[in-house]
Amino acid sequence: MRFIISLLLAFLLLGQQFSYADYPIKGKFVANNCVAYAGIKNQSEPVSLKAGESYSATGLNKQDGDFVAIKVDGINKWVAKSCGKLSLNDLNGDIQPTAIAPTTKPTVAGNSKEDSTQSNQSCPIQGCADRYLLALSWQSSFCQTHPNKTECIKQSPTSYDATNFTLHGLWPDKLSYCGVSSDDINRDENGNWSSLPPVQTDAQTQAELSKVMPGLVSNLDRHEWYKHGTCDGRNADTYYDLAIGLVEEFNASQVRDLFASNIGKTVTLTDVKRAFDSSFGDGASGSLNLKCGKEDSLVSEIRLKIKRPLVGQKLADVLVPSGGLSCDRVIVDAVGL
User: How far apart are CA 7 and CA 265, in angstroms?
Assistant: First the structure.
């Protein structure tokens, strides 16, 4: 009887071992700063992974799955595949990179990238958001209340951000800090953005981002990535490529022209909606909210409700109705106090 019980226990233990990963693999996983869990759905027993450290990879939650089973100090854990780089052993036992990372930069809305593949799309443990908010700032108004910020000191009447909207953020609805370590969350929430790990984007994306996001010099890109971008499910380069394309498309519209030609003057919500509909289609302005300062009525932002943007989609493709509140009229602030 004891032999039978022992045999049954051994069978159950083996079954548990093999069922931990539905799709067994052999390889390594080099992590970014994020968190691994004992369970995918309940995010139990969290443990922070060290950026740049290699972990043994033993499986995926399914073939081409979004989560990797790794060994952390000999214990099985799950981590989002988008959190790092997975490499698999070939037939000779050598490590080979997987197809997770794109070999060419993908095409994004408003840009002329060559490859239109949907690379690095793996949802966080909480799942991908269906809706996003694209927040576009009028930098001169921001600098009225933040004159000592580096980006505000550098602003001039001839700079891009004097006559164009800039990228505040691209925010997945109701999600934040996906897979981010508690230490980095604390750094971010305390405004210690410079101590956050640098965002991994290539030189082209970095150059484009520095143009449309002047707050990059104050590490706004790090704050936005760790708080919001980590919940997108794609890598930082793809995430910011998408955001840059949407900003550039917006700034090529009649809405930007309306504001640029009325600096120092007042524009109405009706004016803005009319220009938006002319650029993006009848009724498109239902996705738009116009924000302003409570006391001075200076335009602060335009916020657009959108679907989760995919590589290659245009702004008009992703607009959805918004229930947010808007200012009826705003003053378009000029550079300088």
Answer: 83
Neighbours of 56 (CB within 10 A): 13
End residue of a domain, out of 97, 112, 146: 97
> Domains in the chain: how many in total?
2
With a cut of 70, say whether residue 39 has pLDDT above it.
Answer: yes
Say which DSSP state 45 is in.
S
Mean of the pLDDT values across residues 205-212?
A: 96
Give the CA angle between residues 144, 160, 248 to the nearest 5°: 115
In a domain, 299, yes or no: yes
User: Which residues is 299 bridged to in the sheet?
Assistant: 292
CATH number, residue 194: 3.90.730.10
Question: What's the CA gap between 313 and 317, in Å, rounded?
Answer: 6
Residue 80 gets the label, from left (phi > 0), alpha (psi -120 to 50) or beta, of beta
CA-based nearest residue to 83, from 32, 121, 46: 32
- Residue 45: domain span: 20-97
Taking alpha carbons only, the member of 260, 243, 252 closest to residue 299 is 260
Last residue of a domain, one of 45, 73, 97: 97
Q: Where are the alpha helices (DSSP H) in the chain?
A: 2-19, 139-145, 150-154, 160-163, 182-189, 203-212, 220-227, 236-251, 254-260, 269-280, 315-318
Q: Determine, yes or no, domain membership for 104.
A: no
- CA 202 to chain CA centroid, Å, is 15
pLDDT band for position 290 (50/70/90)? very high
More confident: 337 or 260: 260
Question: Measured between alpha carbons, how far is 210 from 240 in angstroms, rounded to an integer?
Answer: 11
pLDDT band at residue 17, thresholds of 50, 70 and 90?
A: very low
**Does residue 318 belong to any structural domain of this protein?**
yes
Residue 116 domain-assigned (yes or no): no
Q: What is the CA radius of gyration of the chain?
A: 23
